[in-house]
Amino acid sequence: MTQATPSSPVQPCLAIIQRAPVFLNLPASVDLAISEIEAAAKEGATIIAFAECWLPGYPVWLDEAPKAALWNQEGAKQLYQLLSQNAVVLGDAYLSRLADAARRTGCYILIGSHERRGGTLYNTSFSFAPDGTYIYHRKLVPTYTERLVWGRGDGSTLKTQETPWGVLGSLICWEHWMPLARAAMHAQTEAIHIAQWPTVNDMHQVASRAYAFEGRCFVAAAGCILSKDHVLDGFASLKPDMPQALEILSSMPPEGSDLIQRGGSALIAPDGCYSVSPVYDREIRLMAPLDLGHLARERQALDSAGHYSRPDIFELSVNTKPQMGVVFKDDETD
């Protein structure tokens, strides 16, 4: 594990930002994220986490709107257009602003986003270091209805990040039920893992706690708060002339301020027990210090990538090469 430098706190302080974005509105959501980052940093946070696709909101209509999955549904296509127009692109000004926030605050920042590459959207987690550099991870398998909006990532983005307190990594939602993805991450000796969810329901808590126990690492289970009012207000902030899209969003239950996403953010220790119990149904900046000594204490009994592995029996090969459908070669290399 990388040792803390003299200028770094001996123990990190982790913050989970559990609040609603400005739904579908990327510029406004980036403004809000930066405000929350600066506030958390002033309170002593050194690692700051947001939920899955927080920029600019998880596409809740996929599960909640009765007609969202109908073939050639105009409202669903309009919502995809809005997502595409409000997705980040590698190297763009929105990511640069978040990188600047990391530099100003000296914090590690992990935030979920819709990312556009060509005509395809990805569910992507961006992890920013205090020097302004960042890595990104694209969700390997969009889950069920999510395949209506996102493409699949590949092994080239199954990355972790070095911090003064050890390795920082993340997975997105149901990736925590992919045994080989977990094994690949455990092999990178995570000290701190961000588990991003749209909302951390009961089974998501189970997966997050199991990951902490199996990986012998701290897990921040990051969820979001979102109501139908948040959805409709965010949509209205874009001033779109898209009545069919509004019809799809308006068809979702429940009404008003009743919550679609209930949060459930929590912090879990390397023994699988809660350091901070789940918080539901309200916006909160959940913060707690991490006792790094707990990592070694728990690894005495279990290190799934080390003394509790059997490389003479089991072997996992991870393809980290980017998978490109079209590769152009010049005449000299044909």
From TrEMBL:
Pfam families assigned to the protein according to its UniProt record, in alphabetical order: CN_hydrolase
Protein's name according to its UniProt entry: Nitrilase
Record-annotated active site: 52 (proton acceptor)
Domain named CN hydrolase: residues: 12-292
MF terms in GO: nitrilase activity
Domain of life from the UniProt record: Bacteria
Signal peptide start and end residues: none
Organism: Iodidimonas gelatinilytica
The family this protein is said to belong to: Belongs to the carbon-nitrogen hydrolase superfamily. Nitrilase family.
